[in-house]
Amino acid sequence: MMRQVVERSILRLAGTHVVHGRWGPTPSAFGSGLSLAAARLAALACRGRGRFSRPAGARLRLSAALLAAVLAWAASARTSSAQSAEELLVSRAEIGHQGGQLVVNQRAEPKTLNPITAVDSVSREVIRCTIADLIHINRDTQRTEPALAKAWTVSSDGRRYVLTLRRGLRFSDGHPFDADDVLFSFRVYLDEKVRSPQRDLLIVGGQPIGVRKVDQYAVQFDLAEPYAAAERIFDSVAILPRHLLEQLYTEGRLAETWGLGTAAAQIAGLGPFRFKEYVPGDRIVLERNPYYWKGDRAGNRLPYLDRLAFQFVASEDAQAMRFQTGEADIASRLNAETFSVLAKAEQTRSYKLFDLGPGLDYSFLFFNLNDLDSKALPETSRKQSWFRQVSFRQAVSAAIDREAIVRLVYRGRATPLWGHVPPGNKLWINRSIAQPGRSLERARRLLQTAGFSWKPDGTLVDGRGNAVEFSIVTNAGNGERSQMATIIQDDLKQLGMSVHVVTLELRALLDRLTGTHDYEACVLGLGGGDADPNAELNVWLSSGGTHLWNPEQAQPATPWEAEIDTLMRRQLTTLSNSARKRLYDRVQELVAQNVPFIFLVSPNVLVGAHSGLGNFRPAVLDHHTLWDVEELFWREKRSSATP
Amino acid sequence: MRYLCWRMVHGLLVLVGVSVLSFVFAALAPGDFLSEMKLDPRISPATVAALRDRYGLDLPLPLKYAQWLRSVRRGELGFSFAYNSPVATLLWPRARNTLLLTVTATTLAWLIAVPLGAWSASHPGRWGDRLCAGVTTALLVVPELVLGLGLLLVAVRTGYFPVGGMMSARFADLGPWGKLKDLALHLFLPASALILLNLPILVRHVRASLIEVLAAPFIQAARARGVPHRRLLFRDALRAAANPLISLVGLSIAALLSGSLVVEALMSWPGIGPLLLGAIAARDLHVLVGTVLCSTLFLLVGNLLADALLYLADPRLRVDQA
Amino acid sequence: MSLPGSNVGNLRNVRTSLSLLGLLYASVLLAGLLAPYDPTEQNRDMPFAPPSRLHFAEPRGTFRLRPFVYRVVSKPGSFGEYAEERGTTYPMRFLVRGAPYRIAGILSCTRHLFGFDEPAKVFLFGSDEYGRDVFSRLLYGGQISLVAGLLAASLALGLGTILGGLAGFYGGWADEICMRVAELFLALPWLYLLLAVRATLPLHIDPVQAFLFLVVVIGMVGWARPARLIRGIVLSGKLREHVLAARAFGASDSYLLRRHVLPQAAGVVFAQLAVLIPQYILAEVTLSFFGLGVGEPVPSWGNMLAAAQRYDVLTSYWWMFLPGIALSPVFLLYYTLANALHQQTARLTS
Q1: Which one of A223, A452, B57, B78 counts the least CB within 10 Å of its CB?
Q2: Cα–Cα distance between A118 and A258 in angstroms, integer?
C-alpha cells in the first residue's frame, strides 16, 4: 500500500515535471521562494494521485530524472539570493527572429476587447491574443500545460487545486502581476451581477469555485465536488489587470469598458500582444507586448512578430482571394471548395496549404422529439409517432449515403461518422462503434418491422396509411448543410419518403429549435471547443440546453437518456482517465444505438499560411492557426508591412 | 425658404415612420440577439435569461421604442448589444465611407450614362444602339455578387488592384499623395461594381426620355431650322428631358445605397453595408434601426437635392410654387 | 421623321418579340418534353461534368447526320475531371421514354423529345454539384422564375402607376402623403418583413408556393420606385398645353388622366417593366442568401445563379453561369418589346 502511494506521488510529480521538461525551466526561473514552494508541492503531491499516466518504462526514467531535478531545485534554491527575477516560460519551438507584421482575415469585426463579456467567436479570437490564462490547453497535444501558473497540485479527493504563479511578470502596461490579480479576476467572473458567460464554466457541482490566496504567488481553488479534468476549466479564463479594472468594477461599469473605442493605454493584459489601434469596419491592429512571459531557448523574449493585424473580410470567397494574393498571411477554416481553388494556384503563389484531417466538428440530422402540444402543432406531433421509433431513425441512418456527402459536399475532405466523437478526437473516440455502410435493404427491413409499408407507386405509408412526408430545416448561408440536406432528401426519396428541404436564416432556425419547437427534422453541426467530454455536457445531459432533439427536460424521457445522464454525471466526478474513458465509451454506444442524432460527417480542418512563416503548427482544436501566435516568425526579413 | 422648412418637417416625419416600422418588423422577425448563444453548450439557459433581462429583450415593443427614443435624445441613436457601445459612434465613421463610395459612384455613373444614353437615343435602331442595349441587358442579368466576385477575380489574376478593403496596411506611413493614390486604388473595384450595376437602368431611362423629347415638335422645328445636332441633343433636348431624369437622381441614390450593401460586404469596404448585414444576422436591433435611418437620411437629402434641381430646371414649377 | 424605322418596321418588332417570347413561355411550359432528364435526378458520380460534346464524325472519319455521344466517366481519384470513353457510340434518339412528368400540371407523360441510351448521360449545359442536368433545370426553372418576375413586376408597376399617377395629377395633400409614404417604403428594411412572413408560413408547404407568396409581398411593397417616376411624368405632363386646353374645355379628371396624362407616362412604364422583370427574377439570388429563395431541389433561375456565385465555380465550372447567359436574350426580348410598345404608344399620342 505504502509503496503504491509513493509511486503515485512520484508519478504526480513526474507529471508536473514532464510539463516543465517540455518547456524547460530557465536557470533563473526558480528563485528563492521556491524551496518552500517545492516542499509544499512535494508534500501535497504525496497525497495526490497520478494524473499523467505514462507507459511503465517511461515512468522509471521520468522518476529518476525527477529526483535529479528536485535535488537541483533544492540546490539552486539554497544558493540563489532573494531576488524575485522574472520566471519566463521557455518555448521549445524553433528559434526565430523578431520583426514583421502578420495579417489575418476575420470574417467580422470583433465587437469588444473585453474578455469578461465577449461572447462572439470573432471577438474572442482577437482577445485570445491579448490575454493569458493560468493553465492552458496545448492545442497541438490537446493536454494541459502550465501558463501563468508554473505548477499546480491536486488534493487526493480531487477537490482542492493549489496553483503556483510565475514571479516577476508584468502586464502589457508594465504593471506587476501577482495573486491579487488572480483573485480579482475570479471575483469578477463569479459575480452574478457582472453576468460573464465564463461564470457557467466556473460552477462545479452547482457551487461557484472557492478561490483563496495562499500567498503572493499561490492561489488555492476549492471545488464543491470532484471534477474530472478540472484544470481544463482554467483554459482561456483571462487574468485581468486589477489596477485598471477594480475601480470600474466597484462602480459597476465593468460591462461597458474596453469597447473598441477605448484608448490603447487603458487596456492591458498578459497576452503576447496588446491593443494598438482600431479602424472602424476595416481592421484592428495589435502590437507586440514587450513584457510577455515566454522566451525562447536563445534567451529572446517572445513574441517574434511586431504587429498582428486582423482585417475584416466578410465573404469567405474574398478571404480566400486575399490569401491568394498575399494580402493576408493566414487562412483559417477554409471550406473544401476554396481549398481546392487555392490548391490549384499553390504552385505559382507563395503559400502552403494544410489538410489537418478530421477536426472536432460533426454534423448530424435529428428529428423533433420534444413533448409537443398536440393542439398547437397537430401535424408535427402526429409525425412524431414515426420519429420516436428507434427503427425509423435507424432506417433513415441506413439510407443516407455518407460517402456521397464526403465526395460531393467536401470534395473528399471529410470523414463519414456513425458516432458523436469524431476521429479528430483521438483520446476519446470509441473505435468499436459499428460503421455499417449504406444499405437500402436494411433500411426497408427496419421500416417493415416498424409497421411501415409501401403503396404500389412506391410511397412509404405508416400503419394507419398516412404517407411519410416531412421537412428538413437547416440554416441558410451554410452551403454545406443545405447540400447535405439535399443529398439526404434524394436518399430518402428512394425509401419512398417525401422530404422538403427548407433553409431558414440562422436566428429563425434557432427560434424554432429552442423556442417554438415547430420543426420536424433538422441538419446542424456542433463541435469546436475542447476535446474533453465535459465540453459537451449540455448536449448529452437530458436537462441540457443543447440537448437539441428534446432540450431542458425535467425528467429524462427515455431509459437510454436516463442512462446517458447517469454515465455523464459519473464521468464528471471520476478522476481516473481510463475509468472516464470506459464510461464515455458506453455513452457513445448508447447514442449510436438509439440514434437521437443521425451522424453524417466530420469535415477536415483546412488551413493555409504564407510559406515564409516559421513555427506555423496548425491544430485541429479550435483557433486552429493562431494558438501559438507568440512563436510565429518570418523566416526572411520582410518589410514590416505587406502591401 | 418656407418650402425648405416644410420639407424638413416632412423628412422628420418619414424618419419617425421608418424607425417605428423598423421596430415593428424587427419584432415580427423570429429570433433575437441572444438566440445563437442558446446553442453554445458552455452557456447555461439561466445566464441567457439574465442577459435577456439586461438587454431588455422581453420588454413590450412600445417600451423598447421609448427606451430607444431616450437614447436618441442623448445623441446616442440607441445602444448596440453586440458592440456594447452607442450606435452613433459606430455609425458615423462608416457612414462617411459609404458616402465616399456612393457619391463617387453616382457621379461617375451619371457622367457615363448621360452621353451614352444620348448617343444611343440619337441613333435609335442602329447597331450602336443595339450593342448598347445588348450590353446593358447583359449587365442587368449579372447578379451583384457574381459581378463583385468577377471584379475581385480580375484583381487576383492581374494584381493591379487590391482585393477589397479601403486602405492598405501601410496607409498611415504614406504621404498625402500616396494616401490619395492608395484610396483611389481601393475605391476602383467597389465603385466600378456599383457603376456597372446601375448603368443599365440609368442609360435606359436617359435614352427613353430623350427619344420622347427628340420627337417633340419644338425639336423637330429646331432641327428644321438647322440647329446643329450635338447642340440640339445636349442643350435643348437634355434640358427638356431633365424632369424625369432628375427624379431619377434621387432614386439612383437609393438604388446605389441598396446595391452598395452587397458590394461593400463582398469587397470589405468599411461602410454601413457590412454593419447592416451584421446587424440583420445578429438581430442587433438598435444598430439596424440606426443604419436604416442613416440610409433614409441619405435618401431624403438626395430627393431634396433632386427636387431643388427640378425647381431650378423647370420654370413652370417655379411659377406654380410661387 | 426622327422616330426610327417605319410604322411597319416597328410593328414587325413588336410581332417578332412577342412571338419569340411566346415561344419561350411555351418551351418553358413544355419543359418536361424538351428536357431529357428529371430536374432533380442526381448522378452522384458525375458532379460538375462539363457540357457534353455532340459528335457528328466518327474517329475513322465517317460523318453521321444523327449526332452521337460517348460515355463520359470521371477520372479515378479526381473531382470534377472527366474523360470520354471512345469505345461505344450512343446515338441521339427522338421521342424516347424517360422520367415521367406533367405538362401544365395536368397532362401526364413519359416521352421526351430526345434522349440517349443508358449508361451515357448527356448534359448539354453540363451538370451541377449533385450531377443534375443544368439544361433540364434551366427549362424547369423558367416555370417559376418567369411567372414570379412577371407577377412581382406587374404588381409593383400597377400599384406604382395608380398611386404615382394620382399623386402627380392631383398634387397638394395627396401628393405629399403619397410621396412621403413612398420615401418610407424605399427606406424600410423589407428583408425583415420577408423573414417574418417566411417564419409564419408552415414548413411543409410546397417550396414553390412559399416562394410565390414572398414574391407577392415583394411586388406589393415595390410600388414606391415606379410611383415616384410616374409622378414626375404626370406632374409635367398635366401642365402641357394640350392637357390644359382639354381641361379648359371641361374634360373630366378621369378622362384627362386616361386620355392625355397617363399615356405620356407609358414610355417610363414600359421601360420600367423591362427593367423590373429581370430585377425581380434576380432578386431571388439575394433572397436565397437569407433562405428566402425557392428551396432545393426545385430549380429556379434565381437559385441556380445563387448556387453559382462561389469562387470555385467562378474559376473552374463556367457552365454553371449558362443560366445567367441564357437569361440575357430573354431580358433583351423584354426590352425590345417594351421599346417597340413605347414607340407605338408615342406615335399614337403625339
Answers
A1: B57
A2: 10
User: Do C183 and B204 lie within an 8 Å CB cutoff?
Assistant: no
For the stretch A222-268, pLDDT in tens is: 998 888 878 888 988 899 999 999 999 998 888 778 888 888 889 99
- C345 vs B118, more confident: B118
C-alpha distance from residue B283 to each of A474, B19, B163, C332 (Å): 19, 15, 29, 40
- How crowded is the C-beta side of B199, counted as CA atoms within 13 Å? 26
Of A28-37, A87-96, C315-324, highest mean pLDDT: A87-96
- Helix ranges (H only) for A335-377 are 336-344
Binary contact (C290, A489; C-beta < 8 A): no
pTM metric for this prediction: 0.83
Among chain C residues, the shortest Cα distance to A409 is held by: C129
Q: Which of B45, B51, B266 sits opposite A315 (nearest CB)?
A: B266
Burial of C324 (0-12, 13-18, 19+ CB in 10 A): buried
User: Per-residue pLDDT for C2 more than 60?
Assistant: no
Among A454-468, B81-95, C48-62, the range with the most confident prediction by mean pLDDT is A454-468
Q: Tell me which of A53-67, A586-600, B187-201, C264-278 is least confident.
A: A53-67
Q: Beta-strand (E) ranges in C75-219?
A: 82-91, 93-103, 107-115
- For residue A144, what is the DSSP state? E
Domain with CATH 1.10.3720.10 in chain C: 137-349
Facing residues of C85 across strands? C71
Domains of chain A, earliest start first: 2-85 (no CATH), 101-332+626-634 (3.40.190.10), 362-603 (3.10.105.10)
Chains that touch C (3 or more CB pairs under 8 A): A, B
Contacts of residue A579, Cβ cutoff 8 Å, sequence gap at least 6: A571
Query: Residue B108, Cβ neighbours under 10 Å: how many?
Result: 15
Measure CA C228 to chain center.
Answer: 25
Task: From residue B99, give the alpha-carbon distance in Å to each of A383, B257, B297, B298, C250.
Answer: 53, 9, 11, 8, 50
DSSP state of A109: -
Quick one: average pLDDT of A544-573? 90
Which residues does C283 contact at the CB level (< 8 Å), separation at least 6? C152, C218, C302
Contact: A281, B271; criterion CB under 8 Å: yes
- Is the four-CA dihedral B123, B127, B131, B134 of positive or negative sign? positive
Q: For residue A590, what pLDDT is reported?
A: 94
Nearest residue, CB atoms, B280 vs list C187, C191, C268:
C191
What domains appear along chain B, each with residue ranges and CATH number?
Answer: 2-87 (no CATH), 93-320 (1.10.3720.10)
Residues of A in contact with B162 (CB under 8 A): 327
Going by DSSP bridges, is the β-strand pair A89-90/A294-295 parallel, antiparallel, or unpaired? Answer: parallel
β-pair partners for A614: A633
CB atoms within 10 A of CB B275: 30
CATH code of C137-349, in short, is 1.10.3720.10
Question: Which chains would you list as touching B if contact means 3+ CB atom pairs under 8 Å?
Answer: A, C
Q: Distance between CA atoms of A505 and B281, rounded to whole angstroms?
A: 8
**What letter represents residue A354's amino acid?**
F
| Grid cell digits, residue A505 | 436564416
Q: Which amino acid is at C230?
A: I
Q: Do B270 and A539 touch (CB under 8 A)?
A: no
How would residue A32 be classed by pLDDT, with cut points 50, 70 and 90?
very low
DSSP letters spanning C145-176:
HHHHHHHHHHHHHHHHHHHHHHHHHH-HHHHH
For A438-467, what is the mean pLDDT? 92
- Written as one string, the DSSP assignment of B19-33 is HHHHHHHHHHSS--T
Q: How far is B17 from chain C (nearest CA, A)?
A: 7
